[in-house]
Amino acid sequence: MAVGGVVTTIVGSVMQWTDASFGFMGFEAAGFNALMMALVGLLFGAFSQMGFFAYLTLNYIALGVIRKNYLWNALQAYTTLFMLGMIGYLLYLDRVKLENNLIYWVLPLGLLFASWAVASYKAKLTNKNAFVPTLFLMIVVTLLESWQTIRGEESNVTAIIFMIIPMFACNAYQILLLHRLVRKEQTTDSASNAKPAV
User: Fold this and answer.
1) How many domains are contained in the chain?
2) For residue 31, is it within any domain?
3) Is 100 exposed, middle or buried (0-12, 13-18, 19+ CB in 10 A)?
4) Which residue positions in the chain have pLDDT lower than 70?
5) Quick one: which of 46, 85, 149, 182 is 20 to 30 A from 104 by CA?
6) Residue-wise over 120-149: b if at least 16 C-beta within 10 A, else e?
C-alpha cells in the first residue's frame, strides 16, 4: 500500500506539472492534491494486493486441476498474448473518445516491455519457470485491476496512466518480494520442526 501511495503521488504530481488542469482543485492546491493522490494510491495498493492474492489462489487451484506445470504455463502465455491483443483492439475502437491515436499500440507495447523486464529479473532471481507466471501477473492481472479506467464511461488517457502505472509498480513489488517471503517462511518452519539436541 505504501508503494501504491508513493508511486501514485509521483505519477499524479508529474501529470499535474505537465497538465495544469489535472488535479482535484487545480494546480494552486498542489499540497491537497498530493494528499488526495497518496490516499488514492493506498487504495490502489490494497486493490493490487487483492488481485495478487486472487492470482496466487488461481495458480494453486490450476496446478491442482491441470497437474502439468507446462500446460498451465502454456495457458498463461496464451492468455497473456490474447489480453495484449484484445486491449490494443479495444483501445483502437475507443481512440476517438480517448482523443489519442497512439494509445492503442503504445500501452500494450509499453506494458509488454516493462513486464518482460520484470519477468526476466524474477527468473534471474529464482528460476526460469517463474518467467511466464510473472509475465501473466504483470500483464493480465494489471490490466484486469485497471479495467475500470480502460473501459469505464469516463475513461481517458490520463486516467489510464494514473491507475495503470501504480498498479504495475505494486504488482512488480509483490512478485519480486514473494520468493524472499516464502524462503523466510520455509526457513522458519524448518527451524521450528528441528529436534532439539540431546
Assistant:
1) 1
2) no
3) middle
4) 18-32, 96, 100, 154, 184-198
5) 46
6) ebbbeebeeebbbbbbbbbbbbbbebbeeb
